[in-house]
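Researcher: Structure for this, please.
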Amino acid sequence: MPLTITRELAESAAPRFLAKVDRSGDCWLWTASRLKAGYGQFGFFINRKLYTVLAHRVSYVLHHGEIPDGMFVMHTCDNPSCVNPAHLTIGTPADNSADMTSKGRSHRPKGEIHPLSKLTEDDIREIRRLKAERVMTQREISRLYGLSESTVCQIIRRLRWDHVK
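Model: Predicted structure, token format:
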């Protein structure tokens, strides 16, 4: 079970926490242990058990108060090692996903660069052209490309491959 960071817990560790922060720039950089993605880690020992939490969450609690259940602490600066409370804000999981996507950090390959893609962008343009110019029916297009009719319909209606003009 993850550790809930209370204000009391964060304040009890504040001197140790702040000793690991470089406040020389606009972003306050975490100088201790980090995850591969760059997020800082901070440890609390409770009843001789180590609980590791994300450093920016500790900073948020120290400076702003407790984090409501199910909420994320997001970086407005987009720097995962930053713990500057002025750069931290609360958001829902949906807010966090939207923020990630809007900043181009979504790691979902789309289109022909997706490893399971059967089609190229040129194929998509041709499928749409064939249907728009009534050269072939949806069923014929699906057979030609080895796709289901519903997939062809979604391509034509731009529910799939919507990034292709």
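Researcher: Any notable elements?
Model: The chain has a mean pLDDT of 92. The first helix runs from residue 7 to 12.
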